[in-house]
Amino acid sequence: ADWFLDLGVVQVAGEEDRGCERAPRITGAFGRLSRIACLSLPFSKKTYFSASSALSASGYGLASGPVLAEEIDDLRRAVKQATLRGPKFASTLAFFGCLNLPWRLDAGAQALLAPWFVLHRARGAGRLDADRLGWLWDASSTGKVGPFAAAAVGAARCGVVGDWRGLQGSSGRSLPDPLGCPKAVLRDVLLGEHELVQCRKLDATRST
After folding, report:
1. Distance between alpha carbon 66 and the CA centroid of its chain, in Å?
2. Which burial class, exposed, middle or buried, applies to 46 when counting CB atoms under 10 A from its CB (0-12, 13-18, 19+)?
3. CA 202, CA 8: separation in Å to the nearest integer?
4. How many CB atoms are closer than 10 A to CB 5?
C-alpha cells in the first residue's frame, strides 16, 4: 500500500496525492461549525468555539501535504457562516481581513504555518542538519505530499519566494534562515505576508 492512516491522518508513501481521503476530517469540521451557528452566543464566543473546536479538528495533520485551495475556501466560508448573523451576502475576504480575528480561526493561516512549524521543530531538535534539509527540500518541495511540499505551496500562495535558507515576501520583507530564527518571528513574517495577499484580493474585488 502507498498510503495508510496514522492517528486519523492520511500518510502517503508514494507520490500520488490522497486529498480525497481527508474528507472525514473536513466533514467533521463542517458539522461542528453548523452546530456552533445554532448557538445563541455573542460573536466573540462563537469565534472562540470555532477556533478551539472546529478549526482545531480540521487542522490536525495539515503538515502532511499541501491543502487544496478549494478546501481552505470552503472552511473559511463555513467559519464566516457559523459566527455571523445573516452571513449570506457577507464577504469572506472582508470577514477575515477587517475584523482583527485570531489567526487560528483562519484555515488559510493554519495551512500556511503548520508545515513550517513542523520543519522548524525538527531543525531545532537537531533531527535535520543543513545537508539533509537541502536534499529533502530539493527532492520533495515540488511534489504533492509531505511537509516540504506543503511548506513550499503555502509560501507561494502568500507571495513568498525562497526556501529553508531564506524567504523573501512580496512586501519586501526578508527572513534569512527561517528555520533557525525564533518561532514567533517565523510566524509573524508568514502571517504578515498572508494578510497582505488577502488585503490585495479584497481590494481587487472592491475595485471591480
Report:
1. 9
2. buried
3. 35
4. 9
Q: Are 168 and 133 in contact (CB under 8 A)?
A: no
Block residue for cell numbers 505530499: 145
Residue with more model confidence, 65 or 152: 152
pTM score? 0.84
Taking only the tens place, the pLDDT of each residue in 180-208 is 999 999 999 999 999 999 999 988 887 55
**Residue owning grid cell 492517528:** 7
Q: Which residue, among 176, 177, 174, has the nearest Cα to 159 in the 3D structure? A: 174
pLDDT by residue (tens digit) across 13-42?
555 554 445 556 677 888 899 999 999 999
Distances (CA, A) of 87 to 36, 141, 169, 185: 14, 38, 33, 34
**Following DSSP, what letter does each residue of 121-174 receive, concatenated?**
HHHHTTS--HHHHHHHHHHHTTSSSSHHHHHHHHHHHTT-EEETTEEE-TTS-E
What whole-number distance in Å separates Cα of residue 178 and Cα of residue 174? 10
The CA distance from 182 to 72, in Å, is: 27
